[in-house]
Sequence to fold (141 residues):
Amino acid sequence: MNDIHHELIDFIESGSPFHSFLNIQVLEAKPGFIKLQLPYKPEFGGNMERGILHGGISAMFVDIVAASSLWTHLAPEDKTATIDLRVDYQRPAMLEDLIGEGEVRMLSKSIANVHIKIFSASTPDTLQAEGRAVFHIKRHQ
Fold:
């Protein structure tokens, strides 16, 4: 996890109360790419009869993975804001951990575009959801 500022991993995993509650874990991080794990919690259940997560959990995870991948390019003082977020569900997510990968596809001084893939942990080769995010960046001067 070289070439990224050392505070980034701690911030992603525990820098916000929400991330701490979710127990987000960084599996891999390098400039322009991140891989995160979202451990399953029973509260994430959507349709318990079918054994699937609530769709909002996947959407929330897409947002976290997108922002985290962008942060691999930024300094701790830089600020970001989501302009647009899109989630395309490919299949239901099962009641288990999710894995998310984010890749920065375009980065300018003030705008970034990120592509996100979400997988259920037991089927890492099967896309569960795909996302795209556009961010505004305000760099520290």
Notes: The CA atoms of residues 115 and 132 lie 5 Å apart. The two ends are 26 Å apart (CA to CA).
